[in-house]
Design brief:
Length: 229
Amino acid sequence: MGELKNRRVYIVVLLLGAFAGITVVAVNAASNDANMPEAKRNAITSVTTIDTLQINSRSHSTFSPWASDVGSAEQVAQVKDVAVALFGDYYSVGAMPQDMAARHEYIVGAVGKAKRAAELAGVWAADGVADELSTDEKGMLTFDGDTTSVGYTRAVFVVTSWQNVTVQDNTASVQAVGYIKYFNNDGSTNNDPTWQWQLELVRGGSPDNYHGWRIAKRTAAEVPEGVAR
């Protein structure tokens, strides 16, 4: 796929309850992220998930019944590579320095905001970039001046099991179980909890390191008992 970018943002799930059959599930407090107090983790943002009845059914996938991949072997392989790269780079947007003065300027300064906007435009579908940029900044502001957070340099998406990849023309859907691995400024690493993810991708414009693919939507659910981790 060529050279891929590496950056990071703290984006987590917030418990908001159920609404019209859609549920938001809270992040497991045992996320091993010493740089993110639980109260701050729960204040950052939200990711919608599927109905809890589906989670409790303990089926192979909480998003839909188990299905074979759709698309040619080459298409499926490409979308898997792209999904890993895009999602890791999405979480990498806005990697914050450890120095508090530099961090403040990066979060609120024009240069830092412009950098994040450009990075998000490279991984997210155009019609969602503004909303993602706003979410990113709100999350980062909770760490402005927080000396208990060492900051980070990049993140990667680690897939522990693929469930389904569907590729149809310029759209794709990826279902996988995995977690986000963070690389901190002090040389340490930590992982978010393992989640079941569904990423919807769209393709348009000129080919690039992601073959023109961008993230259009992400949904997440806690991994139910019986699903491969």
